[in-house]
Amino acid sequence: MKIDRIRVGESVIPLKRPFVTALRRVENLESIVVCVGSDTGLTGYGETAPTEAITGESREHILEGLVLLRQELAGKEMADFDGLIEQIKTLLPDHPNARSAMEIALYDLAAQDAGVPLVEYLGGEIVPLETGITISLGETDAMVEQARQAVADGFSSLKIKLGADPDEDIERVTAIHEALGDRVHLKLDANQGWRADEAIGFLQELGRRGIPTELIEQPLPRDDLAGLAEVRRHSAIPILVDESVFTLEDAVRVLEAEAADRINIKLDKCGGISEALAIADLCTERGVKCMMGCMLEGAVSVGAAAHVAAARPETITMIDLDAPLLCAEKPVEGGVVFGVPDIVIPRRAGLGIERIEGIHWIKESN
């Protein structure tokens, strides 16, 4: 099977409400889509979302990388799949978003050619998955109302965005706990917003108030591994790192520094499926559990993440794949079904995507 055409396009999907963290505020999901066609008539889909505040890649940077890959991969044989993946990494070492989009499309194509769902191509099998949902950072009353609505919709796991100010954050968490009690499992995400002393003080106050919490995600800046290790030593709650781990090498450094109990894997962050699997397999060796997370991405890339999570269920034990549920529109037909709170992987080859609406395709001469 040979790659005979690669298309790159964009879409803008409005959100149900603004998505706010300590790092950014977003009102629309901006998606960049890759479509890889083969000489056998199969089509593989990939996707990414510009997340410059996190990965450093702007829309322009991603498109630049994908246009280069379009030129270099056209006409290549899929038989040397591992070689293609390595070529992508060599050509675009500083383009994690672009690499991820192209990898997803190629993995989708390869799994279709093999006639199996992507999860099976990755060595796993379809298993039940259940996601939590994110509560955006904002005024306490608004966050409580978001949380109430999420529980009413059927979610039992909430990730609470924090990181603005530790004193205000503890009041936010307290108000949500008082409103919902033990009906929900709380995960707290500070998005690098605190210092070590602030995080330790927050954790101590959380304990004094008796608020049960499943984990604290990325309380400190990503490079402060010594600070994260110090917070971890003072915490009875597991520390999950997100921005501290982009690559396999990052994961090794974090684990050697004893800076985290858990690792959040995201395809856009690590550069695609191959690196995500490498990180998960390292964590399996070290006995470390992982979360499968996502940026503010569309159903194609988040669907691929669901397949990866299902392929490594003993290690990836937490699922945070709610981005498609935050969208006001559903442009993807077929593929993974994102319910409340269940995620259902279809028993179709590859990602199982039939088509994607609303794509503005970029001219190949670009």
Brief descriptors of the model:
13 helices, 366 residues, four-stranded antiparallel sheet, 2 domains, TIM Barrel, alpha/beta, Enolase-like, domain 1, 17 strands, eight-stranded parallel sheet
User: What would you give as the CATH superfamily of the largest domain?
Assistant: Enolase-like C-terminal domain
Radius of gyration: 20 Å
Biggest sheet strand order reads: 5-6-7-8-9-10-11-12
Q: Quick one: biggest sheet?
A: 8 strands, parallel
CATH class of the largest domain: Alpha Beta
Topology as H/E string?
EEEHHHHHEEHEHEHEHEHEHHEHEEEEEE
**Judging by the overall fold, what is the CATH architecture of the largest domain?**
Alpha-Beta Barrel
How would you sum up the global shape?
globular
Structural class: alpha/beta
Number of strands: 17
Give the averaged pLDDT, no decimals.
Answer: 96
CATH topology of the largest domain: TIM Barrel
Question: What portion of the residues fall into strands of 2 or more residues?
Answer: 15-25%
Which residues sit in consecutive blocks of at least 5 with pLDDT less than 50? none
**Could you say how many structural domains there are in total?**
2
